[in-house]
Known about the structure:
Number of strands: 22
Largest sheet: 10 strands, mixed
Shape: globular
Radius of gyration: 24 Å
Number of helices: 14
Helix content: 25-40%
Mean pLDDT: 90
Structural class: alpha+beta
Amino acid sequence: MALNKGLGSRAATSLPLCDPNSGLWLRAARAGPDIEHLAAFNTLVHRDEGIAAYTRWKLGGGHPAARSSDALIIEDPTGQLVSSLCWIPQTWVYGGISLPVGEVALVGTHPDYRKRGLMSALMCRVEAGLQKRGCALACIEGIPGFYRQFGYEYAVPLGSCAKLTLDRVSQGAVPPHPSWVIRPFRIDQDLPTVMSLYNMSSGILDITSQRDEALWLYQESAPPGVPDRQETYIIEDAGTTVGYFRLRKNMWGPWLEFSEASAGESEAAGDSGDAYRAMLHFARGLAVQRGYVGLCFALPLDHLLLSLVHTLGAEVERQYAWQIKVLDPVSLLKRIAPVLEDRLARSPLGGFDVEMDVNLMSRLLHVAFEGGRLTKVAMEGREARPRVELRLPERQLTQLMLGYRDCRTLMDCSLDVWVHPEIRELVDIVFPTCRAFIYTAS
């Protein structure tokens, strides 16, 4: 298999890998030809023609926050590209607090250069860069299991959780009210209303994604050929928007996927059924036209549209999850301190002085609340001995901090996890399970 030819000349910022005898060099990508080389390289490695369009779209200068230098390249002595990845900025919201997040994407190594530690070198470099840019978390959709070696763990729901075949859609999908119109989203006139609807529906979640106007404009500009290109539609009643939804092709099969859906004020009033049935009716028509076998739903598990499709006999799917690494637990805990303090204030422990040691096996994290305020978060090193401890590996701490698993579930799943009886109530209060879902954020 031929290697993809790079630029053939190294920038002054190129650095050798850990083994100077390898002859391999790591550097940041530059705009222009490097992006085209990355597009061709990712097509070769992933065997997917759509990945080239995705690479150009993400790194070619259109993204409001991503830069070409956010892609890292490893070249051989002749300047040929042999391994690469990039990171794409996102903003997540944890209990109302914005968190900068870096999504690791477009990861690939040429088959002739695998199992040489190249991905370890790239991940180490990108994570150091993310911390310099102030990112609290790194995340990746990634293949199952692979990224655990780098400290990543499943911690926030991702992807489809239900499927509905076309015949079952017919049972619950009804045409819109006579006064309703379903039409494509027009960014010049619909954006403020749809942004408000998005903020309303995502705002009920404990952890979700933030999307500003620039990101909306960018997402709607996705060119043909981008694999996860979305189509946005409006439901309008006599000129007034009553809801919106987004559709895309499911990446794993011939299913048309709901990636967002909001019925606006009718949802707040508990009268959203007709709007969601109209969405199903419209989506079924598109699925038939395009030869899909049915609809699927990449939505939070308690979304009202899912409640409807379950009554129609939807097949439940096990929902995948983002693989996440907390880059600096101390920094993250300090950022989300107002949320933790609020949880404590609304509990029987509100106003008390409480503390605990989080034993991460290789180091100790000390956390103290005084009068209900987080007053100390410090990493105390290997030699420190835990007092009243929560013991767990760092990957399980990620799941606990992000509310993916509570401490009892983690203890049931792993003997590595243990919570001293004196602090079990405290741990349950400050780290409850969370309603979390990351709508498209990059």
